[in-house]
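Technical note accompanying the year-one report. For the benefit of new consortium partners, we illustrate the data format agreed upon in the data management plan: each record pairs a sequence with a C-alpha cell string. No post-processing was applied to the example shown here.
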Amino acid sequence: MVATRQEYYITGDDALGGFQASSWHPQTFTTESAYTISSVKLLVARLGTPGNLTISIRATAAGKPTGGDLASVTVDPSSLTTNQAGAWVEFTFTVPYALSNATVYAIVARTATGDNDNRVYWRADISSPTYSGGQSGTSADSGSSWTMLSSVDKMFETWGTPPAPGKAQNPTPTDDQEDIKFTGKDQLKFLQWEAPA
C-alpha cells in the first residue's frame, strides 16, 4: 500500500530553530486515525558540518516526549541545503511503526555532534502558529528533560499507511436470542441429515 500524508503543518514558517549535540528539538502531533508511519518530511537546513542527524518518533506523556525511539533513521546531514529558507527533506524510518488513533506522539530531531557554528535548522512558525494537535519544544540535556513551547510549531509532515482491513468478527447473540443446542439423538439426526434428491 502506498504511503500518504497524514498529519502536517506546512505554512507560516518565519524562524529557524537550531539544534546540535545535547540540544534536541521535538514537535508533537496528534494522530487523526491509526496508521503505520514510514517517514516524515521536515523543512530543514544546516550550518557548517554538524554530526550525523537522527530523526525519530517517540511516545509522549503530559505532552512531552518520553521513552525510547519507536522508529528512527540516522543520516549524514551534509546534503542538507545551507540556504536558511530550508528545503523539504523526507526521512524514511529504518523500520515503520504502527501508531494508534487519537494519540499524541513526538518527532524528535538531534545531531551526534555540533556547536553554534555546526548545527541543523528546523524551520518554525513563531508568530502565529495554528497547529492544534501539538507544539514544539527544546531539550538542553539530550532528551532527559523537555521545555515545551505552545507558541511555536515546526514545519512537518507525517507519512504512512492505514492498517489492513481486519477479518469480519463472528456476531454475538443479543440477550433476547437463544442459543440453539443439539444433544443426544437430536444432535445425531442433525449431523446425519441429507437434503432430498
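Partners are asked to follow this layout when depositing records. Helices lie at 184-192.
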